[in-house]
Specification:
- The complex is a heterodimer of chains A (423) and B (292).
- Chain A has 423 residues and is an alpha/beta fold.
- Helices cover 49% and strands 15% of the residues of chain A.
- Chain A folds into 2 domains: 170 residues, D-Maltodextrin-Binding Protein, domain 2, CATH 3.40.190; 207 residues, 3-Layer(aba) Sandwich (D-Maltodextrin-Binding Protein, domain 2), CATH 3.40.190.10.
- In chain A, strands 1, 2, 3, 6, 7, 10, 11 and 12 form an 8-stranded mixed sheet that branches. Chain A has a two-stranded antiparallel ribbon with strand order 4-5.
- Chain B has a domain of 196 residues: MetI-like (MetI-like fold, Orthogonal Bundle), CATH 1.10.3720.10.
């Protein structure tokens, strides 16, 4: 009797297991899995996905993740060979090289790239094959309080000397004159424009050079500004800490990525009326006027996709001209040239923001971090130099030695990954 | 009934089989796999397949100044937080062991930190700690005291994090010790009373020795957990400012998911595994001394 029961149990259980597979098989609806970032563009896509499903009959299963978790999830899935992802949002400068090198991106040779700035496509290309569709751009701007400038009777700074003077004049009554990211690795992208404007760089021909006198001068200047005029605890602040301080009215100037304007002026989040918030281009330095302007987000296909045709169809839709215009109208600066030429867009977008984009597009530099596979570790190493500069208000005597030590460490990383020197 | 057939003969193996498989797949396998990876040079950034490297990853990690700092911080955090929790927790348990009005309400309130999600706790404490717009510096300024950088200054970040851990986990020690106190027999107290012992003497010579095994159990449980603390540190500081709150777990996380250096990350984790193991064995030994 027991045996009969046991056999019955097994049979009935396996029935349940296999029945599920059987019931799905005849439908044969195409399905793809899409990973989106918790980014305004991901938010824009989500409610529109049912339209795509209705048009094409392709079922889209999407997930939304915070940016660093997205990188981790993709990396873990791809590295273990267990990925079922078809299309995903990707950060070309952070993970592009890593993913290209490991062969995780699918080829996009069939995609039409004619509407994109050539340089932005180039970063995601290897041996002539493109792998990343540029999606969103960002560049460095300076958010500032018009009312505080007016009260103090000073003009918006256009160079670094004026910037320092303004920061000094505006630091009073519990308000910090100047803020920018100070938290080591997070600060690497924001200090980049300062280093460029002093004539320095992170890498030259894939060799670390951020211990050059020019780069060090930029790092010292940044440290002096933040150490003297930054909010308390600046050396551990990233944008998510600086934004509430600015919104609470405790910060007069804040340099960070252009993408935050929408949140900065959002009346439900800020105490400051939108008319008192201005956006200006980053002041020029003694040797340059090159704020970074980068492709912060792109979209790509997985090389392991079991449904490449459906995946490409989704990619074409999600990066279409129409959606790019929708993105622009939602204050998301898109990569497509046609989106910037659109009349409705130009009429509706913040005029100051458009001006800073025009300046950055003309003069800017297309990288905001060392472009290498081990960028995560390199950012931590450079971050140590930045934090030392901030903690000593730019006066550290051991800064050159520290920078040289970190340059050596970054070069070691480049060598270990076979990227040192040349291409 | 005649015992026959495969099922009947092997029932004693078959029934625990699912549990055994579960343990093997979800507990033993990851540990062994981590051990295996720790002997390779596997990095994702190089794009090369993994290669056996012997003790290479261990040697590289030992030579990394951040590693030794992280070991020190892990112990500093654990010992500081758990000692404070043990003292506070036992004190609270002794207070709660008496009868007074509102005792149950107090017990209920004490339970609340235990059920809170660590990441949410971290975010809320970060709001309190914020040096410019946070509540704690406001309170300090009202009393005319100097302001602190809390989690944003490298000198105060670990104590600030310990404070969060203490806030959250002291109640757990209280509850365990309270259960231990409730189980004590009354006889020694009665004899002590007859002999005219003072309340301090009763506490030092009777209560404390009798409840000590329970306190040590609570300490082991807490310390093993504290050595592995990850969530509040990651949520509140991510190991910063600089590296000044980077414990072993945070360091291993960074090496694996930010640097993609799986070999070295695994060797850090194997090291942490042995620390936790040795620590538990040590405290278990001490506990046995009290049981005699």
């Amino acid at each position: 009797m027991k045996r009969v029961l046991a056999v019955l149990l097994i049979v009935s259980l396996s029935f349940v297991v296999f029945a599920q597979g059987a019931s799905e098989a005849p439908a044969k609806q195409q399905e793809i899995r899409v990973l989106l970032a918790n980014h305004p563009y991901g938010e824009l896509l989500k409610p529109l996905i049912p339209e795509f499903e209705a048009q094409t009959g392709i079922k889209v299963n999407y997930e939304s993740l915070q940016e660093s978790q997205l990188t981790q999830k993709l990396t873990t899935e791809f590295a273990t060979g267990s990925s079922t992802v078809d299309v995903f949002m990707t950060r070309p400068l952070q993970e592009g090289l890593l993913f290209i090198k490991n062969g995780w991106y699918g080829s996009l040779a069939k995609y039409d790239f004619s509407d994109y700035p050539a340089a932005s496509v180039e970063l995601g290309r290897k041996d002539g094959v493109p792998f990343i569709v540029p999606l969103v751009i960002e560049w460095q701007v300076m958010y500032y309080r018009k009312d505080l400038f007016e009260k103090a009777g000073i003009k918006v700074p256009t160079n670094f000397v004026e910037l320092e003077a303004a920061a000094k004049a505006l630091t009073k009554d519990g308000v910090a004159g100047f803020g920018s990211r100070g938290k080591g690795a997070a600060a690497v992208t924001q200090i980049s424009s300062y280093i460029y404007n002093f004539g320095g760089n992170y890498l030259e021909n894939n060799v670390a050079v951020f211990d050059s006198p020019e780069a060090l001068e930029g790092i010292r200047y940044y440290g002096r500004l933040l150490g003297n005029y930054g909010p308390q605890g600046i050396a551990s602040m990233s944008w998510e800490n600086l934004m509430p301080v600015f919104q609470a009215g405790k910060l007069a100037m804040w340099t960070d990525a252009s993408v935050f304007l929408g949140q900065v002026v959002d009346p439900t989040k800020t105490n400051i009326p939108a008319k008192d918030i201005g956006v200006a281009q980053l002041p020029a330095g003694p040797k340059g006027d090159s704020p970074f302007i980068v492709t912060s987000w792109g979209m790509a296909m997985s090389s392991k996709s079991k449904n490449p045709d459906a995946a490409l169809q989704f990619l074409n839709w999600a990066t279409s001209k129409e959606l790019a215009v929708k993105g622009m109208l939602a204050n998301i600066p898109m990569s497509r040239d046609s989106a910037w030429a659109n009349e409705t867009v130009r009429k509706n977008m913040n005029a100051e923001l458009i001006a800073t984009q025009a300046h950055a597009a003309k003069n800017g530099y297309p990288l905001d971090r060392p472009f290498m596979s081990a960028v995560g570790q390199a950012r931590d190493l450079i971050g140590e130099v930045i934090v030392e500069a901030i903690n000593t208000k730019g006066t550290s005597t051991r800064l050159p030695a520290l920078a040289t030590e970190k340059v050596k460490a970054v070069n070691e990383l480049l060598k270990a990954d076979g990227e040192y020197g040349g291409k | 009934m005649i015992k026959s057939g495969f099922f009947e003969r092997n029932l004693k193996y078959l029934f625990p089989l699912p549990a055994l498989l579960f343990v093997l797949l979800l507990m033993v396998f990851p540990v062994l796999y981590t051990l295996f990876v720790s002997f390779t040079d596997w990095t994702l950034t190089s794009g090369r397949p993994m290669k056996f490297a012997g003790l290479g990853s261990y040697l590289k990690i030992m030579g990394e100044p951040r590693f030794l700092d992280a070991v020190g911080r892990t112990f500093y955090f654990t010992i500081g937080a758990v000692l404070a929790e043990a003292v506070l927790g036992t004190t609270i348990a002794l207070v709660l062991n008496r009868e007074f009005r509102g005792k149950n309400a107090l017990k209920f309130i004490l339970l609340l930190p235990l059920v809170a999600t660590p990441v949410a706790v971290g975010i809320v404490f970060n709001l309190f700690y914020d040096p410019t717009i946070g509540f704690l510096n406001y309170v300090l300024s009202v009393f005319g005291l100097p302001q602190s950088g809390w989690v944003t200054a490298s000198s105060t970040v670990l104590p600030s994090l310990m404070l969060v851990d203490i806030w959250q986990w002291t109640p757990m020690i209280s509850l365990i010790v309270l259960a231990g106190l409730a189980g004590l027999s009354n006889e020694p107290y009665e004899s002590a009373k007859v002999d005219g012992a003072s309340s301090v003497q009763t506490f030092v010579h009777i209560t404390l020795p009798m409840v000590m095994p329970t306190i040590l159990t609570a300490i082991i449980l807490r310390a093993v957990d504290a050595l592995k603390t990850y969530d509040i540190i990651y949520a509140m500081t991510g190991g910063g400012p600089g590296y000044s709150s980077e414990t072993l777990n945070i360091l291993a996380y960074k090496f694996s998911f930010e640097y993609f250096n799986m070999g070295q990350a695994s060797s850090i984790l194997v090291f942490l595994f042995f620390i936790v193991l040795l620590f538990s064995l040590g405290v278990t030994k001490i506990r046995k001394l009290f049981e005699l």
